[in-house]
Amino acid sequence: MLFLNLSQLLSSYEILLMNLHNILETAESNYISPSIVGIVFSSVTLIAAVSAATVIDRFGRKILMIISSFLTALCLLAVSVYFHMKYLEYDLSHISWLPTVAVMAYAVSFKFGLGIVPIVLTSEIFAPKMKAIGMTLADGMYVVSSIGALQLYFFLRDAYGIHVPFYLFSFCTFLAGPYVWLFVPETKGKTLDEIQNVLKEPRILMIGRRG
């Protein structure tokens, strides 16, 4: 669960949420203002979150997490490449829409997996008597790690350029996909006892297993 919670943070959702206006101002889009994008981003995020809640039991936690990791990483990579080219002083006026589109796609892909699955898994793997403690510890770690991720973003942005932290976040988010495939069991439709039994098995044996 530690890695899954970290994957949420290192996918840069909190960073985008808190710095979206400044990030898009840096992108210098010719098509839409950062203020409007912020409103649309919040709306898209809300719709995606509600939609994700309706499909997570249909498709399962694992596949949503894997797909979300790869798509979210691609969105972050698109933002990284755009800012890198801008840093190298290429004329990007003809594709200044790219960061806005990538951010919107990011909101959807994040909420359909990375944004919801770790929360659901945290509630499923702990026994009732440990659930409150486990979720409290997870929330506390999330808050502390959020501060660390923000500080890392600001440091890398100021020291090396805004494209560098997004390259890092894209890479870390991509790694979440193989990790989930190798080590995270599918908990859809399982009782607590079944989940606990699966967790006791060697993680490498979960490759290719269904249910």
Instruction: Please tally the β strands and state the result.
Output: 0
- Give the count of structural domains: 1
**What is the CATH class?**
Mainly Alpha
Helix content: over 70%
Per CATH, the superfamily is: MFS general substrate transporter like domains
Radius of gyration: 18 Å
Mean pLDDT across residues: 85
Q: In the CATH scheme, what's the topology name?
A: Growth Hormone, Chain: A
Major sheet summary line: none
Question: Segments where pLDDT lies below 50 for 5+ residues?
Answer: 204-211
Helix segment count? Answer: 9
Strand content is under 5%
State the CATH architecture.
Up-down Bundle
Order of helices and strands: HHHHHHHHH
N-C termini distance: 19 Å
Morphology call:
elongated
SS-derived structural category: mainly alpha
Structural account:
- It is a single chain.
- The protein is mostly helical and 211 residues long.
- The chain has one domain (2-206): MFS general substrate transporter like domains (Growth Hormone, Chain: A, Up-down Bundle), CATH 1.20.1250.20.
- 77% of the residues lie in helices and 0% in strands.
- The protein has nine helices and no strands.
- It has helices at residues 2-10, 13-27, 34-59, 61-87, 98-111, 117-125, 128-160, 163-183, 192-200.
- Helix 2 (13-27) runs antiparallel to helix 5 (98-111) and helix 7 (128-160) runs antiparallel to helix 8.
